[in-house]
Amino acid sequence: MKFKLIILSFLFVLNLQAVITVEYKSGLASGLINTETIDSLDYFNVYELNKVFKAKIMEDVPDQRLKVNMFGEQLIFLLESSYLIHKSELYNFTYDIVQKDGKYLIPVTLLKRIIPEIFPEKITVLDDKIIADNPSDNSIKTIVLDPGHGGKDPGAVGFSRKNFEKDIVLDVTHKLKKILEENLDVNVLLTRDIDEFISLQQRTQFANSNKADLFISIHCNAHRNEKIDGIEVFYLSTAITDDARAVEALENEVVYKFEGGEEAVRKYDDLAFILADMAQSEHLEESYQLGMKLQSSLVGSTNGFDRGVKQANFYVLRGAFMPAVLIELGFISNKEEEKKLIKSSYQDKLIDSMFQGIRDFKFKYDKMQ
Ligand SMILES: [Zn+2]
Predict the structure, then answer these.
(1) Same domain, residue pair 163 and 254
(2) CA-CA 20 to 30 A from 276: which of 55, 201, 303, 313?
(3) What is the mean pLDDT of residues 211-235?
Protein backbone atom coordinates (compact mmCIF):
# COMPACT_ATOMS: atom_id res chain seq x y z
CA MET A 1 0.00 0.00 0.00
CA LYS A 2 2.76 2.36 1.02
CA PHE A 3 4.71 1.38 -2.08
CA LYS A 4 1.73 2.16 -4.29
CA LEU A 5 1.38 5.56 -2.72
CA ILE A 6 5.02 6.35 -3.42
CA ILE A 7 4.62 5.38 -7.06
CA LEU A 8 1.48 7.46 -7.32
CA SER A 9 3.07 10.57 -5.84
CA PHE A 10 6.11 10.01 -8.03
CA LEU A 11 3.89 10.02 -11.10
CA PHE A 12 2.05 13.04 -9.78
CA VAL A 13 5.31 14.98 -9.38
CA LEU A 14 6.45 13.88 -12.82
CA ASN A 15 3.23 15.15 -14.26
CA LEU A 16 3.48 18.51 -12.54
CA GLN A 17 6.98 19.06 -13.76
CA ALA A 18 6.49 18.01 -17.36
CA VAL A 19 8.34 20.16 -19.85
CA ILE A 20 8.39 20.66 -23.60
CA THR A 21 11.83 21.22 -25.08
CA VAL A 22 12.38 23.96 -27.62
CA GLU A 23 15.45 23.46 -29.81
CA TYR A 24 16.69 26.37 -31.86
CA LYS A 25 17.79 25.83 -35.45
CA SER A 26 20.94 27.91 -34.88
CA GLY A 27 22.12 25.65 -32.08
CA LEU A 28 21.42 28.20 -29.33
CA ALA A 29 21.04 26.38 -25.96
CA SER A 30 17.57 24.86 -25.88
CA GLY A 31 14.68 26.32 -23.91
CA LEU A 32 12.09 24.59 -21.76
CA ILE A 33 8.37 25.20 -21.50
CA ASN A 34 6.93 24.08 -18.16
CA THR A 35 3.50 22.54 -18.30
CA GLU A 36 0.92 21.53 -15.72
CA THR A 37 -1.98 19.14 -15.89
CA ILE A 38 -5.52 20.04 -14.94
CA ASP A 39 -8.30 17.47 -15.38
CA SER A 40 -5.91 15.40 -17.49
CA LEU A 41 -5.25 18.22 -19.98
CA ASP A 42 -1.82 19.83 -20.33
CA TYR A 43 -1.48 23.60 -20.05
CA PHE A 44 1.35 26.12 -19.93
CA ASN A 45 1.55 29.62 -18.50
CA VAL A 46 1.36 32.14 -21.36
CA TYR A 47 4.51 33.86 -19.99
CA GLU A 48 6.52 30.76 -20.97
CA LEU A 49 6.20 32.14 -24.53
CA ASN A 50 8.27 35.11 -23.42
CA LYS A 51 10.96 32.78 -22.09
CA VAL A 52 11.38 30.70 -25.23
CA PHE A 53 10.22 32.95 -28.09
CA LYS A 54 10.82 36.40 -26.51
CA ALA A 55 7.14 37.00 -27.06
CA LYS A 56 5.73 40.16 -25.56
CA ILE A 57 2.54 39.61 -23.63
CA MET A 58 -0.03 42.26 -22.78
CA GLU A 59 -3.16 41.67 -20.77
CA ASP A 60 -6.16 43.64 -21.93
CA VAL A 61 -8.57 42.90 -19.10
CA PRO A 62 -11.38 45.31 -20.07
CA ASP A 63 -11.58 43.76 -23.55
CA GLN A 64 -11.00 40.22 -22.23
CA ARG A 65 -8.02 39.73 -24.46
CA LEU A 66 -4.45 38.63 -24.22
CA LYS A 67 -2.16 40.11 -26.85
CA VAL A 68 0.96 38.17 -27.70
CA ASN A 69 3.63 39.54 -30.02
CA MET A 70 6.05 36.97 -31.37
CA PHE A 71 8.23 36.84 -34.48
CA GLY A 72 7.01 40.38 -35.21
CA GLU A 73 3.36 39.33 -35.45
CA GLN A 74 0.43 39.72 -33.13
CA LEU A 75 -1.78 36.93 -31.79
CA ILE A 76 -4.92 38.02 -29.94
CA PHE A 77 -6.29 35.45 -27.50
CA LEU A 78 -9.90 35.76 -26.44
CA LEU A 79 -10.04 34.97 -22.74
CA GLU A 80 -12.41 32.26 -21.51
CA SER A 81 -12.44 30.77 -24.97
CA SER A 82 -10.34 28.45 -27.11
CA TYR A 83 -9.82 31.01 -29.87
CA LEU A 84 -7.11 33.33 -31.07
CA ILE A 85 -7.03 35.80 -33.94
CA HIS A 86 -4.06 36.20 -36.25
CA LYS A 87 -4.29 38.50 -39.27
CA SER A 88 -8.10 38.40 -39.00
CA GLU A 89 -8.14 34.59 -39.16
CA LEU A 90 -9.68 32.69 -36.28
CA TYR A 91 -7.80 29.67 -34.85
CA ASN A 92 -9.31 27.17 -32.43
CA PHE A 93 -7.00 25.37 -30.02
CA THR A 94 -9.93 23.24 -28.79
CA TYR A 95 -9.80 23.83 -25.02
CA ASP A 96 -10.54 27.08 -23.17
CA ILE A 97 -7.86 29.22 -21.57
CA VAL A 98 -7.84 28.69 -17.80
CA GLN A 99 -7.24 31.53 -15.36
CA LYS A 100 -5.67 30.27 -12.16
CA ASP A 101 -3.89 32.18 -9.36
CA GLY A 102 -3.55 35.23 -11.62
CA LYS A 103 -1.96 33.13 -14.36
CA TYR A 104 -3.29 32.50 -17.85
CA LEU A 105 -2.93 28.83 -18.70
CA ILE A 106 -3.04 27.93 -22.39
CA PRO A 107 -3.70 24.36 -23.60
CA VAL A 108 -0.60 22.68 -25.01
CA THR A 109 -2.58 22.04 -28.23
CA LEU A 110 -1.65 25.62 -29.10
CA LEU A 111 2.06 24.76 -29.19
CA LYS A 112 1.66 21.43 -30.89
CA ARG A 113 -0.87 22.38 -33.53
CA ILE A 114 -1.66 26.08 -33.91
CA ILE A 115 1.71 27.81 -33.52
CA PRO A 116 3.35 25.62 -36.22
CA GLU A 117 0.37 26.36 -38.47
CA ILE A 118 0.76 30.13 -38.02
CA PHE A 119 4.55 30.14 -38.32
CA PRO A 120 5.29 27.19 -40.67
CA GLU A 121 8.70 28.55 -41.67
CA LYS A 122 9.77 29.27 -38.14
CA ILE A 123 8.37 26.48 -36.00
CA THR A 124 7.97 22.74 -36.49
CA VAL A 125 7.04 19.97 -34.07
CA LEU A 126 9.07 16.79 -34.00
CA ASP A 127 7.79 14.11 -31.60
CA ASP A 128 7.74 15.91 -28.28
CA LYS A 129 10.16 18.63 -29.28
CA ILE A 130 9.61 22.01 -30.87
CA ILE A 131 12.19 23.13 -33.39
CA ALA A 132 12.22 26.92 -33.75
CA ASP A 133 14.02 29.83 -35.33
CA ASN A 134 15.98 32.02 -32.96
CA PRO A 135 13.64 34.43 -31.21
CA SER A 136 13.82 37.85 -32.81
CA ASP A 137 15.52 40.68 -30.97
CA ASN A 138 12.80 43.26 -30.32
CA SER A 139 14.83 45.71 -28.28
CA ILE A 140 14.63 49.42 -29.09
CA LYS A 141 17.18 50.13 -31.81
CA THR A 142 15.78 52.90 -33.99
CA ILE A 143 14.38 56.13 -32.57
CA VAL A 144 12.77 58.81 -34.73
CA LEU A 145 12.90 62.32 -33.28
CA ASP A 146 10.51 64.79 -34.84
CA PRO A 147 11.28 68.50 -34.39
CA GLY A 148 7.87 70.14 -34.81
CA HIS A 149 6.97 72.57 -37.62
CA GLY A 150 9.66 74.07 -39.91
CA GLY A 151 10.00 76.13 -43.08
CA LYS A 152 6.85 78.17 -43.80
CA ASP A 153 5.33 76.91 -40.55
CA PRO A 154 7.08 78.68 -37.63
CA GLY A 155 4.98 76.97 -34.94
CA ALA A 156 4.47 78.97 -31.75
CA VAL A 157 5.86 82.49 -31.63
CA GLY A 158 7.69 83.77 -28.53
CA PHE A 159 6.48 86.47 -26.13
CA SER A 160 9.25 88.69 -27.53
CA ARG A 161 8.02 87.92 -31.10
CA LYS A 162 11.69 87.14 -31.87
CA ASN A 163 11.86 83.41 -31.24
CA PHE A 164 10.08 80.64 -33.08
CA GLU A 165 9.20 77.17 -31.90
CA LYS A 166 10.59 75.62 -35.11
CA ASP A 167 14.14 76.86 -34.36
CA ILE A 168 14.26 75.99 -30.67
CA VAL A 169 13.02 72.44 -31.21
CA LEU A 170 15.44 71.84 -34.10
CA ASP A 171 18.41 72.81 -31.88
CA VAL A 172 17.19 70.67 -29.02
CA THR A 173 16.54 67.69 -31.29
CA HIS A 174 20.02 67.82 -32.86
CA LYS A 175 21.64 67.73 -29.43
CA LEU A 176 19.33 65.01 -28.18
CA LYS A 177 20.21 62.81 -31.17
CA LYS A 178 23.90 63.16 -30.36
CA ILE A 179 23.61 62.27 -26.67
CA LEU A 180 21.32 59.30 -27.41
CA GLU A 181 23.69 57.86 -30.00
CA GLU A 182 26.73 58.40 -27.80
CA ASN A 183 25.23 56.69 -24.78
CA LEU A 184 22.81 54.05 -26.03
CA ASP A 185 23.14 51.42 -28.70
CA VAL A 186 20.56 53.11 -30.94
CA ASN A 187 20.22 54.69 -34.34
CA VAL A 188 18.48 58.09 -34.19
CA LEU A 189 16.78 59.53 -37.28
CA LEU A 190 15.30 63.02 -37.62
CA THR A 191 12.17 63.79 -39.63
CA ARG A 192 13.85 67.07 -40.57
CA ASP A 193 17.47 68.08 -40.24
CA ILE A 194 17.08 71.66 -41.42
CA ASP A 195 14.51 74.45 -41.44
CA GLU A 196 12.07 72.95 -43.93
CA PHE A 197 8.36 72.23 -44.10
CA ILE A 198 7.22 68.63 -43.74
CA SER A 199 3.59 67.50 -43.55
CA LEU A 200 2.37 65.71 -40.46
CA GLN A 201 1.61 62.57 -42.43
CA GLN A 202 5.14 62.47 -43.88
CA ARG A 203 6.52 62.51 -40.36
CA THR A 204 4.84 59.30 -39.21
CA GLN A 205 5.33 57.72 -42.62
CA PHE A 206 9.05 58.38 -42.22
CA ALA A 207 9.00 56.64 -38.83
CA ASN A 208 7.02 53.68 -40.17
CA SER A 209 9.13 53.17 -43.28
CA ASN A 210 12.30 53.25 -41.19
CA LYS A 211 10.74 50.70 -38.83
CA ALA A 212 11.32 52.99 -35.87
CA ASP A 213 10.80 51.56 -32.40
CA LEU A 214 9.95 54.94 -30.85
CA PHE A 215 8.54 58.18 -32.26
CA ILE A 216 9.09 61.36 -30.25
CA SER A 217 7.72 64.66 -31.50
CA ILE A 218 9.27 67.74 -29.83
CA HIS A 219 7.48 71.07 -29.48
CA CYS A 220 7.17 74.33 -27.56
CA ASN A 221 3.78 75.51 -26.45
CA ALA A 222 1.91 78.82 -26.68
CA HIS A 223 -1.18 80.21 -24.98
CA ARG A 224 -3.01 83.50 -25.41
CA ASN A 225 -2.78 83.89 -21.64
CA GLU A 226 0.90 84.78 -21.28
CA LYS A 227 0.94 83.70 -17.62
CA ILE A 228 0.50 80.04 -18.53
CA ASP A 229 3.69 77.99 -18.29
CA GLY A 230 4.92 74.44 -17.71
CA ILE A 231 5.84 71.14 -19.29
CA GLU A 232 3.51 68.46 -20.60
CA VAL A 233 3.70 65.24 -22.60
CA PHE A 234 0.92 63.88 -24.77
CA TYR A 235 0.09 60.51 -26.23
CA LEU A 236 -2.63 59.75 -28.75
CA SER A 237 -6.31 59.38 -28.09
CA THR A 238 -9.43 61.32 -28.86
CA ALA A 239 -8.92 64.50 -26.84
CA ILE A 240 -10.25 64.45 -23.31
CA THR A 241 -9.95 67.77 -21.46
CA ASP A 242 -10.50 71.30 -22.78
CA ASP A 243 -6.85 72.13 -22.15
CA ALA A 244 -5.66 69.11 -24.10
CA ARG A 245 -8.08 70.08 -26.85
CA ALA A 246 -6.54 73.56 -27.04
CA VAL A 247 -3.00 72.21 -27.48
CA GLU A 248 -4.32 69.69 -29.98
CA ALA A 249 -5.95 72.46 -32.02
CA LEU A 250 -2.69 74.41 -32.00
CA GLU A 251 -0.55 71.51 -33.17
CA ASN A 252 -3.12 70.35 -35.73
CA GLU A 253 -3.53 73.86 -37.14
CA VAL A 254 -0.74 73.20 -39.61
CA VAL A 255 -3.14 71.01 -41.59
CA TYR A 256 -5.56 73.90 -42.12
CA LYS A 257 -2.91 76.51 -42.71
CA PHE A 258 -0.25 74.79 -44.75
CA GLU A 259 -1.47 71.44 -46.01
CA GLY A 260 -4.51 72.36 -48.06
CA GLY A 261 -7.24 73.40 -45.59
CA GLU A 262 -10.51 71.57 -45.18
CA GLU A 263 -9.80 69.03 -47.87
CA ALA A 264 -6.54 67.95 -46.26
CA VAL A 265 -8.24 67.68 -42.90
CA ARG A 266 -10.90 65.44 -44.39
CA LYS A 267 -8.18 63.30 -45.93
CA TYR A 268 -6.49 62.87 -42.56
CA ASP A 269 -9.79 62.17 -40.89
CA ASP A 270 -11.26 59.62 -43.24
CA LEU A 271 -8.34 57.85 -44.72
CA ALA A 272 -5.89 57.85 -41.92
CA PHE A 273 -7.89 57.80 -38.77
CA ILE A 274 -9.38 54.33 -38.59
CA LEU A 275 -6.18 52.57 -39.55
CA ALA A 276 -4.04 54.99 -37.63
CA ASP A 277 -6.06 54.67 -34.49
CA MET A 278 -5.71 50.90 -34.69
CA ALA A 279 -1.97 51.28 -35.18
CA GLN A 280 -1.57 53.43 -32.09
CA SER A 281 -4.06 51.66 -29.84
CA GLU A 282 -1.74 48.68 -29.82
CA HIS A 283 0.91 50.90 -28.27
CA LEU A 284 -1.16 53.11 -25.98
CA GLU A 285 0.10 51.58 -22.77
CA GLU A 286 3.73 51.83 -23.88
CA SER A 287 3.25 55.39 -25.12
CA TYR A 288 1.80 56.28 -21.74
CA GLN A 289 4.74 54.66 -19.93
CA LEU A 290 7.22 56.52 -22.13
CA GLY A 291 5.30 59.75 -21.51
CA MET A 292 5.42 59.23 -17.74
CA LYS A 293 9.18 58.64 -17.77
CA LEU A 294 9.79 61.73 -19.89
CA GLN A 295 7.49 63.98 -17.90
CA SER A 296 8.86 63.05 -14.49
CA SER A 297 12.42 63.39 -15.66
CA LEU A 298 11.79 66.78 -17.36
CA VAL A 299 9.91 68.26 -14.42
CA GLY A 300 12.36 66.80 -11.90
CA SER A 301 15.44 68.38 -13.44
CA THR A 302 14.01 71.78 -14.47
CA ASN A 303 11.57 72.42 -11.61
CA GLY A 304 9.17 73.43 -14.35
CA PHE A 305 5.43 73.46 -13.66
CA ASP A 306 4.10 69.93 -14.03
CA ARG A 307 1.15 69.96 -16.43
CA GLY A 308 1.09 66.17 -16.53
CA VAL A 309 0.90 63.37 -19.07
CA LYS A 310 -2.21 63.76 -21.16
CA GLN A 311 -4.09 62.18 -24.01
CA ALA A 312 -4.84 64.20 -27.10
CA ASN A 313 -5.75 63.55 -30.68
CA PHE A 314 -2.69 64.78 -32.61
CA TYR A 315 -2.50 64.18 -36.32
CA VAL A 316 1.24 63.73 -36.00
CA LEU A 317 0.85 60.78 -33.60
CA ARG A 318 -1.82 59.04 -35.65
CA GLY A 319 -0.53 56.35 -37.89
CA ALA A 320 2.64 55.68 -35.94
CA PHE A 321 3.15 51.93 -35.64
CA MET A 322 5.23 52.25 -32.49
CA PRO A 323 5.06 53.91 -29.07
CA ALA A 324 4.72 57.62 -29.82
CA VAL A 325 4.59 60.77 -27.71
CA LEU A 326 4.55 64.52 -28.21
CA ILE A 327 6.54 66.67 -25.76
CA GLU A 328 5.75 70.31 -25.06
CA LEU A 329 8.95 71.63 -23.49
CA GLY A 330 7.42 74.87 -22.24
CA PHE A 331 5.44 77.95 -23.26
CA ILE A 332 7.36 80.46 -25.36
CA SER A 333 4.34 82.73 -25.04
CA ASN A 334 5.39 83.10 -21.38
CA LYS A 335 8.10 85.75 -20.96
CA GLU A 336 10.16 83.86 -18.39
CA GLU A 337 9.84 80.48 -20.03
CA GLU A 338 10.81 81.91 -23.42
CA LYS A 339 14.00 83.32 -21.86
CA LYS A 340 14.84 79.92 -20.44
CA LEU A 341 14.01 77.99 -23.60
CA ILE A 342 16.49 79.93 -25.74
CA LYS A 343 19.32 79.54 -23.19
CA SER A 344 21.66 76.70 -24.06
CA SER A 345 22.26 75.75 -20.39
CA TYR A 346 18.50 75.29 -19.92
CA GLN A 347 18.23 73.41 -23.21
CA ASP A 348 20.99 71.10 -21.97
CA LYS A 349 18.91 70.36 -18.87
CA LEU A 350 15.90 69.51 -21.02
CA ILE A 351 18.00 67.34 -23.32
CA ASP A 352 19.62 65.48 -20.47
CA SER A 353 16.27 64.76 -18.85
CA MET A 354 14.74 63.59 -22.14
CA PHE A 355 17.75 61.33 -22.56
CA GLN A 356 17.22 59.89 -19.09
CA GLY A 357 13.52 59.34 -19.69
CA ILE A 358 14.17 57.54 -22.99
CA ARG A 359 17.00 55.49 -21.48
CA ASP A 360 14.84 54.35 -18.52
CA PHE A 361 12.00 53.41 -20.84
CA LYS A 362 14.34 51.52 -23.16
CA PHE A 363 15.91 49.53 -20.32
CA LYS A 364 12.50 48.54 -19.00
CA TYR A 365 11.09 47.80 -22.46
CA ASP A 366 14.10 45.77 -23.64
CA LYS A 367 13.95 43.62 -20.53
CA MET A 368 10.35 42.75 -21.30
CA GLN A 369 11.32 41.43 -24.72
ZN1 LIG B 1 4.26 72.67 -31.99
Answers:
(1) yes
(2) 55
(3) 94
